[in-house]
Amino acid sequence: MCVTNGGTRVRVLAACALVTMGGWCAYAQAQQGTERQAMIDAREARAHEPLITKTFFLKHAARQNDLNDTQTALRNVFPWVKVYGTAGQNAITVLATADDMQGVEKLLSELDRPQKVYRLTYSVSDVENGKKTGTQHYSLVVAAGSRAILKEGKRIPMVTGAAGDNGAQNSQVQYIDVGVNIDASIEGEGLKTKVELTGVADEKSSIGVADPVIQQTMLENFSILTMGKSIVLGSLEVPGTPHHQEFEVTTELLGQ
Question: CATH number, domain at 98?
């Protein structure tokens, strides 16, 4: 118990705080020492138990990261167990005692589950005076934690230079993709989208008569997955006209 008297109050309170803190630190260190010793004792006890080997084939690991994440979870929960992965077969081999093997089997049954699969339907609409005059739809299927890319359009040649020997010249041509490019990825409950629309404009280039002018519209967005409901990702006005383009996405859960 700390007692204060007159001008010594501040010094006594500081001393009390140091005593209290020191006692807490000593308790925390003792607790850590007890837990550490318990782990050592448990490890030594397991050292005398027979070990068994078992291989588990993951049914729903569609990517290398799925196998890696499962191995990491097993090693973190059971640091004394030997875990080996075989990527080519989506397999995990475990060396452990019978009791630990039961825990490994239970954890694997909780981790190796079917992934959610979604159908994303993107709609690009032309709007004039508040009314839609035309809409194009693009659909792609994306698994949870994965990425999908959709491309539709043409490849336009563009002369970028010329080279030649002995008076003969050969044109250097580079092809440019124009059309629709949609890049979608799902992480948790979030949807990351990039929509890019490109095309050849009617105007001519001021640099070279044969060079096309490429017009481009691009939208990058992060939204929350909402099943069965259309979400407006953004809209863009077309300069000099009463038109604007509107981008929407509708999400549908296909299975898990």
Answer: 3.30.70.270
